[in-house]
Amino acid sequence: SQQGEEDPQALSIQEGENATMNCSYKTSINNLQWYRQNSGRGLVHLILIRSNEREKHSGRLRVTLDTSKKSSSLLITASRAADTASYFCATDVESNYQLIWGAGTKLIIKP
Amino acid sequence: DTEVTQTPKHLVMGMTNKKSLKCEQHMGHRAMYWYKQKAKKPPELMFVYSYEKLSINESVPSRFSPECPNSSLLNLHLHALQPEDSALYLCASSQAGQPEQFFGPGTRLTVL
Hints:
By secondary structure, chain A is an all-beta fold. Helix content of chain A is about 0%, strand content about 55%. Chain A has strands at about 5, 10-15, 20-25, 30-35, 45-50, 55-60, 60-65, 70-75, 85-90, 100, 105-110. Chain B is built from no helices and 11 strands. Chain B has strands at about 5, 10-15, 20-25, 30-35, 45-50, 55, 65-70, 75-80, 85-95, 100-105, 105-110. In chain B, the strands form 2 sheets. In chain B, strands 2, 4, 5, 6, 9, 10 and 11 form a 7-stranded mixed beta sheet that branches. In chain B, strands 1-3-8-7 form a 4-stranded antiparallel beta sheet, with no helix packed on it. The interface of A and B includes residues 2, 30, 43, 95 and 102 of A.
């Protein structure tokens, strides 16, 4: 089942620019994760932020979490052509292995 | 070994065929998952195995039959599929009780 929405649905930027994607969800969560999916391939886990954290960094990735607004954002700095992919947020509500997925943002980096 | 492998990469089958998808991981993960993903959509959970026991079945039609022979292997047996079952089938694994999931590259299934 799909809990959240992501926006924008699609984003096209020039290489070197920063890309920001947003994810909103509906219920209280334990954690929120971001995954990347290159065209027609498996998903790759990027970063996890716990409900008691507000910001997390990993390389060129910065994730923020606002539990009062039930939203998260993923910032990719200094984008590269290889960042072209779909990005999904996923939340886990109960500790039963189920993730609730957002609809995804398709990111295109133009050279 | 830090990857999840899936075979075959592509599969074309008729509605009367029986085929199987295979997934393998050697990371010692005790939870394994099958997902179905349609184009431009997020993955939909089908089944979850925890410690080799089926713990979640998301009301999947019986023409899909999962099997977990051991802690490293996960199969999905397919029989009498419909064209609408054509999709990317993804396998994933995780450490027990941990939310991060590790995905295989998927099997692109086409049902004629």
